[in-house]
Each structure stands twice: as structure tokens, then as C-alpha cells.
Specification:
The protein is mostly helical. It is built from seven helices and two strands; from the N terminus they run H-H-H-H-H-H-E-E-H. It binds zinc ion.
Amino acid sequence: MRQTLISDDKVIEELKKAAAETLAIDVATIKADSSLVKDLGAESLDFLDINYRIEQTFAIKMARHFIIEHIEEMFGEGTALDTDGKLTEKAVNLMRIRLDTAVEGSTLEALKPGMDMDALPAMITIRSMAGSIMDILDTLPENCTECGKSAWKTENDTHIVCGACGAEAAYKNGDDLIKDWLQKTQDEHKII
Ligand SMILES: [Zn+2]
């Protein structure tokens, strides 16, 4: 369900904090549209660190794999990347749908078939990453899986727990969420 206990702004604030701590930079210099790679200098190991911090903060599991890897696994080798490791048109079409509301138009323009997969991390912004976190938080079930009651509340505006029995909220993990989204989008748009 679409949860309302944790706001978009709160997620962006926590993500800025996590990025600032990981990259040892001043949080005030980070904007919602900052690219973690291009503007903040993040490298691949930094993403692991930021993900870890975010997982602790919100008690969620972030995706371990990029959408490209999921496309190849679900729809077959060569569907997302050609033999030179460049993005296929199908992969680009899927990613455009995925990123439509999360990134700036200019970033979306840069996403083209033939693009190198290594160029993708530069497209990740604080805002697009916050969108992925919100998607996970929005898998909060209507009722507590432990006691069946619907009495969710937050602790520190980041942890959702059951107000009736105290159980931690159970969310879908990031990888399962990407797979669900890919299947649904494929069924609707028949891109692959
Ligand atoms: Zn409960």
C-alpha cells in the first residue's frame, strides 16, 4: 500500500545524510538532483556503503542488482546488452519508463541505445534513489503480518512498527520489487 508515515522529504533528507557521511562531504552541498557520481564523486563501493546506511535507517533491503542485470536474467541473455556490452533499444525503452518521473529530462535524453553500461551509475541522483527507497516503503502491507492488526506507526520517522504488537514492518526487498515491476511493465507494453 502507499504508506504515508514516511515522507518523500524525509527519505531525501536521510539519503543526503548517508551520502554526506559516506563521501565525507558537507550535507549542505548535496541537492536532490545531484548525481552521486558526477556531482558528488561517488564510486561503486560508496554505493554499497550508502545502501547499507539506508538499510539500517529504514529497516529495508535495497536492490543488489541493476535493472539491466534483472532484464537479462528474466528475458534472456542479449535482451539488455549487446555483444559489446552496450545497451539495447529494448533496455533503453524499459529504463525510460522506469526513470520517467524520477530524473530530469536532460538525463533521460542521455539514455540512448548503444550507451555503455558503465555510464549508467552517473544517472543516479539523490531523487531517483529516493524514489527506489519510497517504492520499497510503499510495499508496507495493509495489516501486520504478526498480529493482523492495522496499526502502523513510526519511530524517529524512519522505522515503521506495529502499534499493536511492536513487530517491525515487513517490506519487499529491492530486487523482488524490480522483478515485479519488469514483469508488469512487460505485460502492459510488450517491449521485449
Ligand atoms: Zn502487529
